[in-house]
Amino acid sequence: MNIYDLTATAIDGKHIPLSEYRGKALVIVNTASKCGFTPQYESLEQLYKKYRDRGLEILGFPSNDFAGQEPGSNQDVESFCKMNYGVSFKLTEKTSVRGPQAHKVFAFLTKEKPFKGFNANHPIASLLESNLRTNFPHFMEGDSVKWNFTKFLIAPDGTVYERFEPTTDPMEMEADIVKLLEKR
């Protein structure tokens, strides 16, 4: 199985076969509107606008799995993203991204790219890890998504190239994105 065998449902209810991203670099990210990492929408949109004509796609999966930080309806999420960050990349309907109820896309991604730790250079990495270990210790178990804005970079051939934790700003992925786009 690879990423192109999977599907998702867009925020407007339409079916998204991930095979439509074959031959493109793809960022898959779980998102939330009320998170300290929510401003990453801005960087994601910047990357999308800069590289979409060269073959970059971004697919955001809104999720309320982490401290209820995505409480609204699909329409609320879509409005928030467009009004506050000008998001033009595709969003899915709200879904779960961790645990036994995790969307098949995230079950696949976390199996392919296990958790290797937070970006220690980020100013709040130790605070995030401490908060998770204290308040949500089960989140730190295994390789599942640990928090909002975990990003997976998929190569044009469908392989999971890299996993970037919330403590990695999307702009820090730019060199890897360019590398994949140049190989297309």
TrEMBL record:
Annotated GO MF terms? peroxidase activity
Keyword list, A-Z:
Oxidoreductase, Peroxidase
Q: GO terms for biological process?
A: cellular response to oxidative stress
Q: Which residues form the Thioredoxin domain?
A: 1-182
Presence of the UniProt keyword Oxidoreductase in the record: yes
Keyword Oxidoreductase recorded: yes
Location of the active site? 35
InterPro entries under this entry?
Glutathione_peroxidase (IPR000889), GPX_AS (IPR029759), Thioredoxin-like_sf (IPR036249), Thioredoxin_domain (IPR013766)
What protein family is recorded? Belongs to the glutathione peroxidase family.
Official protein name in the record: Glutathione peroxidase
Species assigned in the record? Teretinema zuelzerae
